[in-house]
Structure to design on (228 residues):
């Protein structure tokens, strides 16, 4: 079974500053890793995913994440945030079989201050 | 192409009643997963249907059930509603059910039990 921990429930940051949202996972088997974003009153939207290969994954809206197997982490980063990035961000993990379900972390609320 | 459609968007029910929520996946997608989202528990996996068969099930009581039709549309039913069932119910579809293809989420149905 897999699990995922998002270490920060809220992250406040000033506009145009860099941000890192932390995510650690636990699994006894190979995993796929994801970051999703949820804007108010909406469903979740896929930001990026790690399946295999390069450990640095680039996603939409200027976000990127780095898979670190030894530290079982998949932190999300953006070099310069905008007001429009205000949302809740979810890290997620799944096994690699086609029947695996996606397990989500508890979410990190990113609030951008002007 | 049209996204994942969930109906209704909002629902208010009385404790003890039952409710049925509907999810129409993206055309061609055969897998539909359901999640419950609450402030306290976050996103919790309910079940997944693939080609009309339940392939995965989360740790919810038997009051929560679902089904999938031959056109891949899915419904979930909650019987004997409790106050704690108040939540945002999210549906996600994917082409084959494999997590590597990513899930596309609907906007959710917000259920309030009074």
């Amino acid at each position: 079974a897999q699990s995922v921990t998002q270490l920060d429930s809220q992250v406040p940051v000033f506009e145009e500053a860099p941000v890192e949202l932390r995510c650690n996972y636990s699994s006894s088997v190979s995993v796929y890793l994801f970051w999703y974003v949820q804007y108010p009153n909406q469903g979740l939207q896929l930001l990026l995913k790690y399946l295999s290969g390069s450990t640095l994954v680039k996603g939409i809206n200027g976000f990127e994440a780095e898979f670190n197997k030894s530290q079982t982490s998949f932190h999300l980063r953006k070099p310069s945030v905008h007001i429009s990035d205000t949302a809740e961000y979810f890290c997620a993990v799944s096994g690699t079989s086609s029947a695996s379900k996606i397990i989500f972390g508890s979410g990190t609320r990113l609030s951008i201050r002007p | 192409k049209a996204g994942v459609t969930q109906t209704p968007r909002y629902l208010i029910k009385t404790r003890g009643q039952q409710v049925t929520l509907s999810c129409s996946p993206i055309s061609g997608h055969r897998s539909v997963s359901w999640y419950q989202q609450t402030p306290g528990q976050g996103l919790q996996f309910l079940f997944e249907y693939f080609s009309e068969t339940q392939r995965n099930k989360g740790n919810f009581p038997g009051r929560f059930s679902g089904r999938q039709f031959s056109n891949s549309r899915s419904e979930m039913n909650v019987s004997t509603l409790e106050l704690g069932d108040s939540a945002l119910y999210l549906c996600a579809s994917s082409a084959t059910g494999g997590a590597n293809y990513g899930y596309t989420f609907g906007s959710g149905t917000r259920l309030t039990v009074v």
Q: What stands out?
A: Chain B has a mean pLDDT of 93. Chain B has no helices and eleven strands. Chain B touches chain A through 25 residues (CB under 8 Å).
